[in-house]
Design a protein that fits this description.
about 200 residues; mainly beta; six-stranded parallel sheet; twelve-stranded mixed sheet
């Protein structure tokens, strides 16, 4: 189908559009009203930033960095209690350099606030999301093509808590989940896992 780009719109302002289908005989349909609210690509606390890491560094515990549609540079360090949310796993991608973790989450479970990562895709790195000892909730995320060493999609360490819900973990070199957080502190639900070097390694 045809697409139309409308320029000059202000972020945060809602606009109404009349959408009309026209056939070859130039007969138009009755039309449908569609509303849209443009958002800056990287936002936290009402301010926009040039890079994701700049936004994370400016965020306070409990705040969420929101990302629009697009591909963003990875090798991010997520501060304790700061969350990261994209538009969707299909439309927002975090791409690492191929070295290190695409996203490293800081924090200590029971000491620091919860961090969430949601509505985005993660690819290209030695690890997808490195949870460490943080209290981390990952949902509606796709992680694929983590082909460095060790190549795990998601990792966690003893002292942390991992909750993984509605994720897709496919075609990664290592384990889908590699966690030494203890089984009682790791939850995996409603997820699609396949074609990885290993499945769920939780001890």
């Amino acid at each position: 189908g045809l697409s139309k780009t409308v320029t000059g719109l202000a972020n945060g302002t809602t606009y109404d559009f009349m959408v009309v289908a026209v056939d070859q005989g130039e007969n138009g349909s009755p039309g449908v009203i569609a509303s849209a609210t443009p958002q800056a690509a990287i936002v936290v606390g009402g301010s926009s930033y040039f890079t994701v890491q700049q936004a994370i560094d400016a965020a306070l515990p409990g705040q969420t960095v929101t990302l629009g549609v697009g591909t963003f540079v990875g090798n991010l360090v997520l501060k304790p209690g700061v969350s990261l949310r994209g538009f969707s796993a299909k439309h927002t991608r975090i791409v690492g350099s191929g070295l290190g973790a695409v996203i490293t989450v800081q924090g200590v479970y029971l000491t620091d606030p919860l961090s969430e990562i949601s509505q985005l895709a993660v690819t290209t790195g030695e690890t997808g999301i490195e949870g460490g000892t943080a209290d981390l909730y990952i949902h509606h995320v796709a992680i694929y093509a983590i082909n460095g060493t060790p190549g795990h999609a998601i990792t966690g360490l003893l002292g942390g808590r991992l909750r993984i819900v509605n994720v897709v973990l496919m075609s990664n070199l290592g384990h889908a989940v590699d966690a030494t957080t203890a089984a009682a502190l790791t939850t995996v639900k409603n997820s699609v896992i396949g074609k990885n070097g290993g499945g769920l390694f939780v001890v």
